[in-house]
Amino acid sequence: MTAVSRFVISLLFIAAGVNHFVSPDMYLKIMPAYLPWPLFSVYVSGFFEMAGGIGVAVPKLRRAAGWGLIALLVAVFPANVEMVLHADRFPEIPFWALVARLPLQGVLIAWVWWAAVKRVGATDE
């Protein structure tokens, strides 16, 4: 089950990271106005999502990548708050879904920790 979770996490973060470069406008809409260099920030977060996704798939990099993804998930949380505070920018997304993203971030953090950071027995599978 852990191997499947790692595979899914890798795919999700790599795909999300690629999407930052393919569709940056979507991410620019959720960037809080107080953050400088919005487009650069979108690209940097996309790069680190891809790097983390790849790292989770590589046993020697897995724990570091997991910690990096957890840090990234914490760092991008203000964008989720921004979506709730400015729901009018996202008429295609139901308000309940925007609100649901807030606790979902905690679930993602726990999932990454369980699949990539937590040591399994004496070895790291």
Automatic annotation (TrEMBL):
<dbReference type="Pfam" id="PF07681">
    <property type="entry name" value="DoxX"/>
</dbReference>
<dbReference type="InterPro" id="IPR032808">
    <property type="entry name" value="DoxX"/>
</dbReference>
<keyword id="KW-1133">Transmembrane helix</keyword>
<feature type="transmembrane region" description="Helical">
    <location>
        <begin position="64"/>
        <end position="81"/>
    </location>
</feature>
<dbReference type="GO" id="GO:0016020">
    <property type="term" value="C:membrane"/>
</dbReference>
<feature type="transmembrane region" description="Helical">
    <location>
        <begin position="93"/>
        <end position="116"/>
    </location>
</feature>
<keyword id="KW-0472">Membrane</keyword>
<protein>
    <recommendedName>
        <fullName>DoxX</fullName>
    </recommendedName>
</protein>
<keyword id="KW-0812">Transmembrane</keyword>
<feature type="transmembrane region" description="Helical">
    <location>
        <begin position="34"/>
        <end position="57"/>
    </location>
</feature>
